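Researcher: Structure prediction, please.
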Amino acid sequence: MENKFIADATGRLDKIIENKLKNLSRSYIQKLIKEGFVLVNGKVIEKPSHKIKANDLIVVKEKEPEKLEVGKEDKPIKIVYEDEYLLVIDKEAGLTVHPVGRKTTDTLVNRLLYHVEDLSQIGGVIRPGIVHRLDRDTSGLMVVAKTDTAHRTLSEMLKRHEIKRRYICLVKGNFKETFGTINLPLKREQGTTKMRVSIMGKEAITHFKVLETIGPYTLLQIELETGRTHQIRVHMAHIGHPLIGDTLYGKKDKNIDLERQFLHSYEISFKHPIINKELRFTSELPEDLKETLWELRKKWKKKQ
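Model: Predicted structure follows.
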């Protein structure tokens, strides 16, 4: 597949392509450039930072699709909505969304391939249908695309903050304010899976609202404006309120028996990308999180 266009602005090559071909991610574009799949005025350019002038002719050659080697697995998926264009699923905690590295089995994608006849191919071989992700140990609602058109539109809606995602999390410490916004850019720590706050990072905005104070803990409603990797976990840890159960950005709380971070995607709402119908879905807290809250409320109510 080949995309050809005339640049109508100046700037970095990767950014110019990203603005023009909105279905391609920046990282994928940079990979195409470095591997020689991008031409400017007939010449192969292998530097993503190459300066483009207005009226330059840019040709982007996308790689031929790889053979799908991710196996189908007959394991359960909780589907809360499905039509011919997309589906919304309620992901269980502990389930990785798509194959990573040597892990090519027991992921959400393996299960989707078994249960869903058609998935969009924009995400490539290992991410068919995946518009956005949840961390392995985060439970709750996700939208998955079945057609390429739906996938492209949903991706654009995410960039425009038109898909509302709300989470519930339990954090250490109490708040003086009842609501607030954290606007701190995030960047991946080189050579690791961890993220950190950095002025060199990408914009990340998290809105929070206090739902309940339980002794030295606080239950929060979180609404994401952006969707960076580990965004909620890093932002809350940075302001001194790490998520309960999150041992990557905090420490295990010896008083709470929870084997994963207390984070659940409980609500997602958006306008259907094809039929323009307003959609809204909610998900109850899983039993492990309900049990944690019940134990804490029982303990701290006695101490009041």
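Model: The chain has three domains: 2-61, 78-159, 164-269.
Researcher: Thanks, that helps.
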